[in-house]
Amino acid sequence: MSEDEWLSTTHAAALLGCHPHTLKKWADRGLIRYRKVGRMGHRRWLRSELDRFIRSVDSASAIDEYPEGTVTIEPPPKGARVTFAYTYWRGRPDND
To answer: For residue 87, which phi and psi values (nearest 5 degrees)?
Structure first.
């Protein structure tokens, strides 16, 4: 893969290890440059720009904001309603 290669959003997101929507949000915030192509305005990502972004994230101090083992989860405030929802199927779901 050459450094001047243009990648689709799907391929660029796979390279970064993120969801395509996340990549688009980063671009909308100005963190990654891209080019729109075609009538539909599909985004294309330059490989060298993605490499630059990876290097900038690797060296950013924000990555060290939560060193391993220091993240804590606060309990919900007293009186807060906490609900969990899940679906469990045993066998096949009904087709009715």
So the answer is: -120, 130
